[in-house]
């Protein structure tokens, strides 16, 4: 199998339509603002100083990412695994970030790109309190581009379809998976894991 070159891509894919190019906006407009306000989940992508790329799931109540202006978002940091890969990339790497926002039941997604900075300013922490807790830090994003993706990927995957949902029991608990992979810690049932998660939101 041979790798494709940039010149090969032009022979495989047609040029995007003017409409596809024009939909990339330089700021958060009214539609994007409404979508973010409804979104309880997004994926945050960052790049490290060594060229590595990280993608991390982020979630909260709908609107947990705050739109504070046409070119600024605030994302509170919540309890996680403390690897802080994303934040290390932001402070040590390029600082560039990309987010994809999801709204349950809507197949279209929203992509937002820009540059990020971290803050522990008390006023920002207080403004993004959630679940009765202050975040440990707040990611401020200077938005450079925002555009909606069509719904084809989510339609193909049937992501929101009840018929496509699997029962959790088809996979071992995350605790069991990590124990099998590392031989560290004691395996726990998924019920125990989820009960603990609920105390750490």
Give a nutshell description of this structure:
This protein has helices at 6-12, 18-22, 30-38, 85-92, 122-127, 152-157, 174-182, 190-198; strands spanning 41-47, 53-59, 66-69, 72-76, 96-102, 109-119, 138-149. The chain starts with 5 loop residues before the first helix and ends with a helix. The chain contains eight helices and seven strands; from the N terminus they run αααββββαββαβααα.
Task: Tell me what you see in this structure.
By secondary structure, the protein is an alpha+beta fold. The protein has two domains: 10-157, Electron Transport, Fmn-binding Protein, Chain A (Pnp Oxidase, Chain A, Roll); 166-198, no CATH class. The chain is built from eight helices and seven strands; from the N terminus they run H-H-H-E-E-E-E-H-E-E-H-E-H-H-H. It has helices at residues 6-12, 18-22, 30-38, 85-92, 122-127, 152-157, 174-182, 190-198, and strands at residues 41-47, 53-59, 66-69, 72-76, 96-102, 109-119, 138-149. A seven-stranded antiparallel sheet has the order 2-1-5-6-7-4-3, covered by helices on one side. The chain is globular.
Shape: globular
Oligomer: single chain
| Beta-strand percentage range | 25-35%
What does the radius of gyration come to?
19 Å
CATH class of the largest domain: Mainly Beta
What number of domains? 2
Question: Could you say what the CATH topology of the largest domain is called?
Answer: Pnp Oxidase, Chain A
Unreliable stretches, pLDDT < 50, 5 or more residues? none
What is the N-to-C order of secondary-structure elements (H for helix, E for strand)? HHHEEEEHEEHEHHH
At CATH level 2, the architecture of the largest domain is Roll
Query: Could you tell me the number of beta strands?
Result: 7
Could you name the CATH homologous superfamily of the largest domain?
A: Electron Transport, Fmn-binding Protein, Chain A
Structural class, please?
alpha+beta
The count of helical stretches stands at 8
């Amino acid at each position: 199998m041979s790798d494709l070159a940039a010149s090969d891509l032009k022979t495989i894919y047609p040029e995007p339509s003017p409409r596809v190019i024009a939909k990339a906006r330089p700021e958060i407009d009214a539609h994007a603002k409404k979508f973010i306000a409804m979104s309880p989940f997004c994926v945050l992508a960052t790049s490290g100083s060594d060229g590595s790329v990280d993608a991390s799931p982020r979630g909260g109540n709908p609107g947990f990412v705050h739109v504070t202006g046409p070119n600024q978002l605030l994302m509170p940091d919540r309890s996680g695994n403390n690897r802080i890969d994303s934040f290390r990339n932001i402070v040590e790497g390029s600082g560039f970030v990309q987010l994809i926002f999801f709204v349950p039941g809507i197949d279209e997604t929203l992509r937002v790109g820009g540059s990020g900075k971290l803050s522990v300013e008390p006023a920002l922490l207080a403004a993004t309190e959630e679940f009765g807790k202050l975040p440990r830090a707040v990611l401020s994003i200077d938005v450079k581009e925002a555009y909606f993706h069509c719904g084809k990927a989510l339609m193909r995957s049937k992501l929101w379809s009840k018929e496509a949902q699997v029962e959790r029991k088809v996979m071992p608990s995350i605790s069991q998976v990590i124990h099998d992979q590392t031989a560290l810690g004691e395996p726990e049932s998924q019920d125990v894991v989820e009960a603990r998660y609920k105390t750490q939101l």
